[in-house]
Amino acid sequence: MEPFQLTSSPGRPALLHIDRWECSHPGLSAGFTTRMGGVSEGRYSSLNCALHIQDDIGHVLENRRRISETLNVPFEAWTCGEQVHGRKVAVVQRTDRGKGRAAREDAFQDTDALITNETGIWLTSFYADCVPLYFFDPVRRVVGLAHAGWKGTVLRIAQATLVAMSETYGSEARDVMAAIGPSIGSCCYEVDGNVIERIDECLTELGASEDDRRKAYRPGAQQGKYMLGLQELNRQIMIKAGIMPMHIEICGMCTGCRTDLFFSHRKENGSTGRMASWIGLNL
Ligand SMILES: [Zn+2]
After folding, report:
1. Domains of the chain: which residue ranges?
2. Residue 226 C-alpha to ligand 1 middle, in angstroms?
3. Residue 283 and residue 280: Cα distance in Å, rounded?
4. Of the candidates 11, 90, 85, 78, the residue with the CA atom closest to the CA atom of residue 49
5. Ligand 1 mean position, distance from CA 183 (Å)
6. Ligand 1 centroid to 184 CA: how many Å?
7. Bridge partners of 192?
């Protein structure tokens, strides 16, 4: 069954929830926004969540407020990093609550992953095709969120996030639940040989089998082009880092195929809005 389930009502942001997690763990909220149910206009229509593109800031903040209202969390809980396709993980403390919610300047700088064990903090990050990675340790009540494009993936930000959870909060990989959210699929993500060289290095570091390599990418229609599956590569990195395969949920929706539901950087020629991923504990 698709782990990300859509909830929508007229005039409200349409949101995808990781249903099984939320049902099994009271107080946990985790999911992904769509492009529907906001106030942004034109190419950002309508639920653009990101401040770093040329959308009207008032519209973005209204969208974030509407999402908060729909999730029944205060807007003050939104906490964001300034994403740079790196591998830095920030530990979010109570005093950091709300960083980056209304302006980029006070977000965690150069940060693609956030972790916390504080309640009442909503970790968020932003996407148009890149891969949202979610982490939840139900034993120590720790949540984590990481943004992984191909660069963050080969930098193994998934592993870095898990290591930070372990070093900071004592999380053990075997307890950790992970989810890989809506992102561009290998059906739509064509890359050049220079990207595949880096992917190959990463697969070699992982000790990947030939079968694992075939699952991560395949030749494209044109000579020198490849179709890359970032979800699968992140899954392999998570397993190598000690997460149990049965604890990994993978979204089956491709942001490139579903531009009715999602913004897609690739399909919309780099000029589009961003969705938000979120995870938080409210008790
Ligand atoms: Zn696709």
Report:
1. 4-183+244-281
2. 14
3. 9
4. 78
5. 9
6. 6
7. 225
Burial class (CB in 10 A: 0-12, 13-18, 19+), 57: exposed
Q: How far is the CA of 253 from the centre of ligand 1 (A)?
A: 8
* 219: CB partners within 8 A, 6+ apart: 225, 226, 227
Neighbour-count burial for 241-276, b at 16+ CB within 10 Å, e otherwise: bebeeebbbbbebbbbebeebbbbbbbeeeebbbbb
Q: Does domain 4-183+244-281 bear CATH number 3.40.50.920? A: no
| Cα 251 to Cα 66, 231, 246, distances in angstroms | 24, 9, 14
What is the tens place of the pLDDT at every residue in 157-211? Answer: 999 999 999 999 999 999 999 999 999 999 999 999 999 999 999 999 999 999 9
Give me the pLDDT at residue 147, please. Answer: 98
106 C-alpha to ligand 1 centroid (Å): 35
CA of residue 258 to ligand 1 center, whole Å: 7
Whether omega before 24 lies within 30 degrees of 0, making that bond cis, reads: no
Cα of 196 vs centre of ligand 1, distance in Å, is 19
